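Write out the 3D structure for:
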Amino acid sequence: MANSLKSRTGRFMAGVVLVGAIAGLVLVIRSSAEQRSWAGTEGTVQERIRSGKSFSVRVEYALPDGARQEATLSENGPARHPGDRVTVRYDLEDGRVVDAALADNDQAHWVTGGMLGVVALGGLYLNFRAWASRRRPE
C-alpha cells in the first residue's frame, strides 16, 4: 500500500480525495448557513407522504403578508404526523417563496458535514503519507 500510495497516481488520487472532501464540506457549511438566514414561521403538517424509504410532509404555513402557503418538505428529523405544529424556514424573492425547509433539517447537514470531515481528515493523512520522504536504511 505504501509503495502504491507514493506513486504518481497514488499522490494524484490522495489529492483528489482531499480536494473533493474539502469542497463538499464548504458546500454543506454554506448551505446550512444560508438556510439559517431564512425567515421562519409556524406551520401545521397536513399529510405525511412515504416515497420508498424516505418520508416527506405537506405543511401549510402563513407568509408575512398573511397569505397561506403549502409545501411538501423533506422530513429528516423526528417523525411528524398530521396536525403537528412545525417550524418552517423559507426564502423569499420578490414576494414569492423560492425554497423552504423544516427548521429541524439541520440534522442532515450535521451528518453530511461530519462524514465529509472524516473523509477530509483521511485525505489529509493520505497526502502526508504520499508526500513523506522515504526512510533510507542506515
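The chain has three helices and five strands.
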